[in-house]
UniProtKB/TrEMBL annotation:
Gene: aroK
Keywords: Amino-acid biosynthesis, Aromatic amino acid biosynthesis, ATP-binding, Cytoplasm, Kinase, Magnesium, Metal-binding, Nucleotide-binding, Transferase
Assigned EC number: 2.7.1.71
Binding site for substrate: D34, R57, G79, R133
Protein name as annotated: Shikimate kinase
Enzyme class name: transferase
Pfam families on file: SKI
Protein role: Catalyzes the specific phosphorylation of the 3-hydroxyl group of shikimic acid using ATP as a cosubstrate.
Amino acid sequence: MDKNIVIIGMPGSGKTSLGKKLSEKLNYHFIDMDHYIEESRNRTIASMFEEGEVVFREEEIKASQELADTAQTVISTGGGIITQEASMKALKRNGLILFLDRPVKNIEKDIERDSRPLLKDGKSRLQELYEERIELYRLYADLIVENVLDEDTVVEAMAAAIN
Ligand code: S3P
């Protein structure tokens, strides 16, 4: 199977670290979309947010369209990708969407050391975002894997869900 595996989920849910491990296990390429956007636009996500969230979302849609024709790639997305139908449509074209669901209380434990724009308002904002987004994560997901155990076990569960 050469479809991409597109990982969606809240900021701090483990999309990048577990996605990278999954790509190694499957012998797939790996792309972190936030990193891809920053590298290809030669600017930081924080600077886009300073101009307005919409500036970032437009770049995110374009990046999703640019990546739509890749194959055999694990793509970890930014937590808000599900807010843009155009992004999800593009990524779904050759992608299986995997929602990595990690409880907010577990994510909160890591937040203090984080500098991502939408996390800077702190814990209550994260819970609010989760409540705003959960229906969309579930709507777009082809597969849902809970991230509540150690990394290797969760990567195993992700690989098993795909096959
Ligand atoms: C965002 C999450 C970030 C990044 C941007 C917006 C969000 O990615 O795309 O700051 O809206 O939740 P991570 O989920 O990797 O933190």
